[in-house]
């Protein structure tokens, strides 16, 4: 489990009688399940998660997690294979652009001069067959790692980023925007690698500090901050709302101007923006980095909620033992705890603001026709990586 889409899928399949609560640790690749043993057994929980195609095995409460997937019969990741798909997709996209450029009046026309207005499909049909073939192959290869996950998500009636990108790339090709479809598929393949790299960087950085992979067994250590709960509730409303707006954008304006291709293309951009990846990942990465760096100084915060409480009332948090000064803590441990908690909340606010402003800017640009599809994918990826790296700054405790 490496991303918010996977966490959302797990939350969906475990929304069953007997499951009392779920706490996700994306950086630690763990989910803590509180359940009623009289109504549900652990094997049933594992079976439901395994049915999604995600590798899963159990850990005892408080057990340190190591990279032991193969020891539990889980297939290891294949980043090299994913790179292969991404590189092959990019190479074929460049071939298509090169063929387009050879037949175009200028290189600029070939690179950015694709029309999205009425008649764009007919114009694309006039392109060289070799260019269309290269773009088509680029789309297929770029989506190769994505489509299986998209199919699983659709089976559970989930519109996650895998589904949205697959629909957008194939939809762009359907309306004659083969180059943009190839760019979306290629960029998302690279985006997937960048996001996995940024999360893995967080995981490695934390494990180097605490001596094992992140994830805390202490009671209350994964207690979510209020802002995390707010983001979950926001995302639950935001995603279907933006998806509905995309459908409205596709159907309503063309009834008046007849430009079905134009508005379908803009609706595809809305779909890409419907998945709030950067927003959802922004807080847990920051909390993990903040708690880990404080622990290195001998100050133990018991989760995100403890950070919020310490920022508002440090002495109260110490009295409630939301924050514990361990042996070796500095003499000014209480002062450090308050300052560190306020710094962490400041970074969380920065990340949430960046994620929301990125989404807002591109939603407006998409509706106005000023943002191409490939740029929307790149912006969403860039925001996700940016908030992750910004959160990791807290590993340098001051």
What does this structure look like?
66% of the residues lie in helices and 5% in strands. With 398 residues, the chain is mainly alpha-helical. The protein has three domains: 4-59, Alpha-Beta Plaits (2-Layer Sandwich), CATH 3.30.70; 79-193, no CATH class; 211-395, no CATH class. The strands form two sheets. The protein has a two-stranded antiparallel sheet with strand order 1-2. It is elongated, with a radius of gyration of 23 Å. Mean pLDDT is 77; it is low at 67-78 and 217-222.
Summed up, the helix count is: 17
Largest sheet: 2 strands, antiparallel
The largest beta-sheet arranges its strands as 1-2
Structural class: mainly alpha
Helix/strand order = HEEHHHHHHHHHHHHEHHEHH
Task: Describe what is shown at a glance.
This protein has 398 residues and is mainly α.
List key phrases describing it.
3 domains, Alpha-Beta Plaits, two-stranded antiparallel ribbon, mainly alpha, 5% strand, 398 residues, elongated
């Amino acid at each position: 489990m490496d991303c918010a889409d996977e966490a959302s899928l797990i939350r969906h399949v475990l929304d069953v009688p007997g499951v009392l609560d779920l706490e996700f640790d994306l950086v630690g690749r763990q989910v803590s399940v509180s359940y009623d043993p009289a109504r549900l057994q652990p094997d049933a929980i594992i079976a439901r998660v395994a049915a999604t195609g995600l590798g899963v095995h159990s850990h005892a409460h408080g057990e340190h997690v190591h990279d032991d997937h193969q020891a539990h019969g889980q297939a290891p990741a294949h980043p090299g294979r994913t790179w292969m798909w991404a590189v092959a997709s990019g190479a074929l996209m460049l071939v298509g652009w090169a063929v387009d450029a050879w037949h175009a009046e200028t290189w600029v026309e070939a690179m950015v001069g694709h029309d999205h207005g009425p008649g764009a499909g007919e114009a694309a049909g006039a392109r060289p067959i070799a260019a269309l073939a290269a773009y088509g192959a680029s789309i297929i290869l770029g989506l190769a790692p994505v489509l299986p996950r998209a199919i699983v998500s659709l089976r559970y009636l989930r519109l996650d980023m895998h589904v949205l990108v697959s629909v957008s790339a194939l939809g762009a090709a359907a309306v004659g925007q083969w180059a943009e479809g190839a760019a979306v598929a290629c960029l998302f393949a690279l985006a997937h690698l960048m996001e996995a790299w940024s999360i893995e960087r967080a995981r490695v950085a934390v494990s180097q500090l605490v001596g094992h992979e992140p994830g805390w067994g202490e009671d209350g250590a994964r207690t979510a901050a209020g802002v995390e709960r707010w983001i979950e509730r926001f995302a639950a409303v935001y995603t279907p709302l933006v998806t509905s707006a995309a459908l409205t954008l596709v159907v309503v304006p063309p009834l008046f101007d007849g430009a079905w291709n134009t508005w379908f293309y803009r609706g595809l951009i809305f779909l890409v923006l419907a998945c709030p990846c950067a927003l959802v990942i922004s807080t847990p990465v920051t909390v993990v980095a903040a708690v880990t760096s404080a622990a290195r100084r001998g100050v133990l915060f018991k989760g995100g909620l403890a950070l919020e409480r310490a920022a508002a009332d440090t002495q109260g948090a110490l009295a409630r033992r939301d924050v514990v000064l361990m042996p070796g803590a500095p003499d000014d441990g209480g002062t450090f705890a308050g300052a560190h908690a306020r710094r962490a909340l400041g970074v969380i606010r920065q990340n949430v603001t960046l994620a929301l402003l990125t989404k807002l800017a591109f939603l407006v640009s998409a509706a106005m026709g000023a943002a191409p599809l490939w740029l929307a994918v790149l912006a969403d990826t860039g925001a996700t990586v940016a908030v992750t790296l910004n959160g990791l700054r807290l590993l340098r405790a001051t």
